[in-house]
């Protein structure tokens, strides 16, 4: 096939077109590199400056990027990289490491059988890596114990799709946003988790004010900023809501009977189940804890507006009823025939850059490659294609069960690639115990520090985003190239290479004899078309890119983004599925699924009266191993936190910025309190990013229950019963220091944050400290004040023993701030933003010096909490601009640039404007 290539894709060593490393939006990136001829300590040419910008020609983002994607260039330093293989903590050669891995796996299989080994993969892997890992485990080792962190992200959508459509097909595409008149966003803080898509929705709404946006989410998130209607549905009650909608559609004659009779089965049963759970509007509103009028509005809009698009994400998937939630949504789209038409359809938003690629190759334990399921015909087909007689006969263990099996000693060797299960799985205390007990834990990663690497018996250095070379698939089925900007750091190797080397050492030489990523891609493409058509020319399987199976290396290098499937009529891809039926079931009809709503398995009780919901924040990605390297991404939210409703805060005696501890039956965590009405009374919210690498006590997945959905095995990350209490510290404080601290102080609460020129520790301690001021010197690495003076620091100090306030500043001989530390008896501490900014100054001036120990910025210098990460604009600067007359987001942007790059902070700017207006109105009412 002649692949279309864009002129921009021609290889230019100083400008590379690639794809973002983070979320499932899959934004195209242009990376411009200023190369420097000097060699670094590793003897490789390194780029001095990488300028990252959105790729205008990429159809998924049309030139836009969010704060995370924009900061990718700041995460490429080698300091945090894993550079050499290690066996049992000792550096080894690649040959030794690969021999060791192959021997460990072979011996384990010989002794205990194929199911005694496992792979745990990641949506961060490229499709080529994923393909060979799955081929080795399912095709040659003969076990299906290969699962992926995508299990935690969207496996409920996979099963929901398969139950309804017969295959895991996403029927819609991003272009549907611009065609839709109603966009319903369910269980997704799109503004923070898929920011570029959110901006796309926002632009569409701004250009077409008639477009209605409905957000269905227990929290009032930043996504509600553009909503005509927010339905704060009770946690776990979505199936009542969508069953109610189906009933309403039937009651108002909005059902597309023609579409159903031609293309669907099971409508009557699904409607009967829906009617049984949703007798009338009031009952549904009651079950969902919603206002009846608001619910009626949504039902009316969905009934009347034909071009209706439903986006959904983790709030739907990460649930013990996730699959039923998905099918309750799909039922409504099938019932109205709103599927596969411009502006109409369900669209699941994937979390990771290559969650979809993993689905294509069978990265989940219950699927085979190329969207094939486990059955005799497919097993036979794969065996013939791969020329193996050892294809796994039945599904393997999904993530939570896999780690339980490791804990039970049934799995004795696990190879974990590009993921951090010691943080990201629920009930992480048990996961860590499992890894500690496991005889062989091989971890392939590009970073040298992660909670999971702590347990590795073998560490394999993998290439990072800027060195990888292959393909990824985004939420709209669009395959894009990820291209290398640099040669690999140290001895890092591509994951596909490491896997194929191990496979060859295990005796599978011919089947894994690939020379490059393109070799693997060609085979993957060929498999997608292998025995994949029927007489009626209807594809047997939806995933087909076989037209790319003879792509040459140059065309692979220049491959432009394409939406699968590729057909002879649609050489550049297919936008939508199912407008005319043709589902992938034996009779080509979609299946309605009767849904009988049930409450989540673990309910709040007297011991654990609150419900914990978890999620993500705007500027961090997963377990922060990469985003935390970009100082500007650490400014917006720098500590683990817990949101709770003012009523609960009052009841618990917790104030804003206090520390709060959450406890469940599985574990505990401590974070900073945020008191807000954006969460419902009775529930708390905490983000999932922090790890043992950056906090001692803020790991939320220690608390999360390990309950899973019965169909998808996706863990319930949105509903854990917990209790909360104020963390009562005797001392609270922070340390900001220019030098890297080798050891963390022994404190009961601690979080580390990286700034551009300093390290920042927040801490709290529950018992009395002896000689507190001296303790601060110790934590900074000095035995006492004399020691610091002896090292030529000017020492500024303040102590008030009566009030328990201790403050310390160290200034070096060049008049640069070296460290500042403050210890008090209350959590009300000075703002750290201004103090942090002093580390970027060549000298500390007199004004700053005078203000240093108070922590209060001189007039006009305090920017407040950073809101706009792109231009480092703080809330106080924005408030000042508003006081000076800026009345809307545009005027704030014109004056400060805030919100004018990625736009992710616009909801927060709006909220500051609103707060300032309220304060002004209250003040003028008083006068
Ligand atoms: Fe990357 Fe942001 Fe685009 Fe997601 S929305 S792919 S994180 S730039």
Written overview of the protein:
The chain has about 950 residues and is α/β, with parallel strands linked by helices. Helices cover about 30% and strands about 20% of the residues. The protein contains 30 helices and 36 strands. Strands 5-4-18-17-16-6-7 form a 7-stranded mixed beta sheet, sandwiched between helices. Strands 23-27-24-26-25-28 form a 6-stranded mixed β-barrel. The chain has a 6-stranded antiparallel beta sheet with strand order 30-31-29-34-33-32. A hairpin with a 4-residue loop joins strand 25 (about 660-665) and strand 26. Helix 3 (about 125-140) packs across helix 21. It is globular, with a radius of gyration of 28 Å. Mean pLDDT is about 90; it is low at about 1-10 and about 35-45. Iron/sulfur cluster (SF4) binds near residues 23, 25, 65 and 194.
């Amino acid at each position: 096939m002649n692949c279309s290539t864009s002129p921009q894709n021609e290889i230019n060593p100083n400008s590379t077109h690639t794809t973002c490393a983070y979320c499932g939006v899959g934004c195209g990136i242009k990376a411009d590199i200023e190369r420097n001829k000097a060699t670094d300590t590793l003897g490789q040419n390194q780029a001095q400056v990488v300028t990252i910008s959105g790729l205008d020609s990429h159809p998924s983002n049309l030139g836009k990027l969010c704060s995370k994607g924009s900061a990718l260039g700041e995460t490429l330093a080698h300091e945090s990289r894993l550079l050499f293989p290690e066996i049992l903590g000792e550096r080894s050669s690649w040959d030794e490491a690969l021999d060791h891995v192959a021997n460990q796996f072979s011996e384990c299989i010989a002794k205990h059988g194929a199911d005694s080994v496992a792979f745990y993969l990641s949506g961060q892997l490229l499709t080529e890596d994923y393909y060979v890992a799955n081929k080795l485990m399912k095709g040659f080792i003969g076990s299906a114990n290969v699962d992926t962190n995508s299990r935690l992200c969207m496996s409920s959508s996979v099963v929901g799709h398969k139950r309804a459509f017969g295959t895991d097909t996403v029927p819609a595409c991003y272009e549907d946003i611009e065609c839709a008149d109603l966009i319903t966003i369910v269980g997704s803080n799109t503004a923070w988790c898929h920011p570029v898509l959110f901006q796309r929705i926002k632009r569409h709404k701004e250009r077409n004010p008639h477009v209605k946006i409905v957000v269905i989410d227990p929290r009032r998130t930043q996504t509600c900023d553009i909503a005509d209607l927010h339905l704060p549905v009770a946690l776990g009650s979505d199936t009542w809501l969508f069953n109610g909608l189906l009933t309403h559609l039937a009651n108002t004659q909005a059902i597309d009977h023609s579409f159903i009779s031609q293309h669907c089965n099971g409508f009557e049963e699904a409607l009967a189940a829906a009617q049984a759970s949703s007798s009338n509007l009031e009952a549904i509103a009651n079950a969902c804890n919603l206002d009846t009028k608001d619910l009626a509005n949504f039902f009316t809009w969905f009934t009347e507006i034909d071009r209706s698009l439903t986006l959904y994400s983790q709030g739907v998937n990460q649930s013990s009823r996730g699959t039923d939630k998905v099918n309750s949504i799909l039922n409504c789209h099938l019932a109205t025939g709103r599927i596969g038409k411009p502006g109409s359809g369900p669209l699941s938003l994937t979390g990771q850059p290559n969650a979809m690629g993993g689905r294509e190759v069978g990265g989940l334990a219950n699927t085979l490659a190329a969207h094939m399921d486990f059955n005799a015909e497919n097993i036979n087909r794969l065996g013939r294609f791969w020329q193996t007689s050892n294809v796994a006969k039945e599904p393997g263990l999904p993530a939570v069960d896999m780690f339980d099996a490791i804990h039970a000693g049934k799995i004795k060797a696990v190879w974990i690639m590009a993921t951090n299960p010691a943080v990201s799985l629920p009930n992480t205390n048990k996961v860590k115990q499992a890894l500690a007990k496991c005889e062989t834990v091989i971890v392939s990663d590009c970073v040298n520090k992660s909670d999971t690497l702590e347990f590795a018996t073998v560490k394999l250095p993998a290439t990072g985003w800027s060195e990888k070379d292959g393909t990824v698939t985004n939420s709209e089925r669009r395959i894009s190239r990820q291209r290398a900007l640099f040669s690999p750091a140290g001895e890092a190797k591509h994951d596909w290479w490491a896997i194929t080397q191990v496979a060859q050492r295990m005796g599978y030489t011919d089947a894994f004899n690939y020379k490059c990523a393109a070799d693997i891609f060609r085979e993957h493409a060929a498999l997608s078309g292998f025995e994949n058509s029927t007489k009626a020319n209807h594809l047997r399987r939806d995933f087909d890119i076989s037209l790319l199976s003879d792509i040459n290396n140059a065309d692979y290098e220049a491959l432009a983004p394409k939406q699968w499937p590729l057909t002879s009529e649609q050489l550049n891809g297919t936008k939508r599925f199912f407008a005319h039926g043709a589902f992938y079931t034996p009779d080509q009809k979609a299946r309605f699924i009767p849904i009988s709503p049930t409450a989540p398995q673990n309910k709040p009780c007297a011991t654990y009266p609150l419900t914990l919901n978890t999620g993500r924040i705007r500027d961090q990605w997963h377990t922060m191993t990469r985003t935390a390297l970009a100082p500007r991404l650490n400014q917006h939210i720098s500590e683990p936190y817990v949101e709770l409703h003012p009523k609960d805060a009052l009841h618990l005696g917790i104030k804003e910025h206090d520390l709060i501890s959450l406890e469940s039956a599985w574990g505990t965590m401590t974070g900073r309190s945020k008191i807000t009405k954006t969460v419902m009374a009775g529930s708390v919210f905490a983000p999932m990013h922090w790890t043992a690498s950056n906090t001692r006590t803020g790991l939320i997945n220690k608390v999360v229950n390990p309950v899973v959905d019965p169909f998808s095995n996706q863990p319930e990350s949105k509903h854990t019963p917990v209790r909360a209490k104020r963390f009562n510290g005797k001392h609270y404080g922070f340390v900001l220091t220019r030098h890297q601290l080798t050891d963390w102080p022994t404190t009961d609460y601690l979080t580390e944050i990286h700034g551009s020129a300093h390290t920042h520790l927040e801490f709290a301690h529950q018992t009395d400290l002896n000689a507190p001021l001296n303790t601060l010197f110790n934590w900074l690495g000095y035995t006492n004040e004399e020691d610091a003076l002896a090292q030529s620091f000017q020492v500024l100090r303040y102590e008030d023993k009566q009030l328990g306030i201790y403050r310390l500043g160290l200034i070096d001989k060049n008049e640069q701030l070296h460290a500042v530390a403050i210890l008090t008896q209350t959590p009300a501490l000075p703002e750290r933003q201004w103090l942090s900014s002093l580390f970027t100054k060549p000298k500390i001036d007199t004004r700053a010096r005078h203000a240093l120990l108070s922590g209060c910025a001189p007039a006009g210098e305090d920017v407040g909490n950073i809101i706009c990460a792109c231009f480092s604009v703080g809330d106080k600067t924005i408030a000042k601009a508003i006081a000076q007359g800026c009345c809307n987001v545009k005027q704030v942007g014109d004056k400060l640039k805030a919100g004018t790059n990625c736009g992710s902070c616009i909801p927060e700017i709006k909220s500051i404007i609103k707060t300032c207006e309220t304060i002004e109105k209250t003040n003028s009412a008083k006068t």
